[in-house]
Amino acid sequence: MALLESDVPIREVVTTDPEKAKALENDVRAKILDMLATEEMTIEEIHDELHRRGEEKAETTVRHHVNVLKDAGMVEIARLEEAGGGTRKYYKSNTRIFSYDLPEDAEQTLAEAQETATAELAGLVETLYGEHGDDIEAVARDMKPCEYCATQHYEEFVLRELLNRALIDLTENGTVESVRRDSEDAGDEAESHDDEDDR
Predict the structure, then answer these.
(1) What pTM did the predictor assign?
(2) Which residue ranges make up each domain of the chain?
(3) CATH class of the structural domain 18-93
(4) How far is CA 51 from each of CA 39, 43, 76, rounded to the nearest angstrom?
(5) pLDDT truncated to tens, each residue of the chain (199 aa)?
């Protein structure tokens, strides 16, 4: 007889490659990524900013962490400058880590938005499989570690990567911000019309 039985639904999915997962094992590296997402910095500047944030790390340790992130493909050299007979390297992150907790009532507040997102994504997934299903399945097959492994999880990973990269594209080219502003403007306009109707 079971002492406990519970249906445990999937609530979160984290997609990353093993090299990046290993690089993120250290919380200092997550802080470095956060710092380098907004500006280019040298090792010395990273060291000083970490110190300001309460992380007492030697400059050699900071250099090691940056090199681990660079080897994982999450940080790049953004520019080089001549400095006192040598070269100064500026690093920048190409990876953004969101490490937040939603407020307790967020699930209830966002329930309708979640329904909308689910319905819209169902149509998008159908379109993706209809137009690019062979490509998605081919990539998933190439990812399989052995002939006995099922491909479903690999296909889900490919889909999540496609959606994530599309969202990154929309964020980087300003579409998300533009839609947000347009939505706010439309809301302000509707509110203004309601005020006029009340007069």
Answers:
(1) 0.70
(2) 18-93, 110-191
(3) mainly alpha
(4) 17, 12, 22
(5) 566 666 676 666 667 788 888 888 888 998 999 899 889 999 999 999 999 999 999 999 999 999 999 999 999 999 999 888 889 999 999 988 877 788 999 999 999 999 999 999 999 999 999 999 999 999 988 887 677 776 678 888 899 999 999 998 898 898 989 998 988 887 766 666 555 555 5
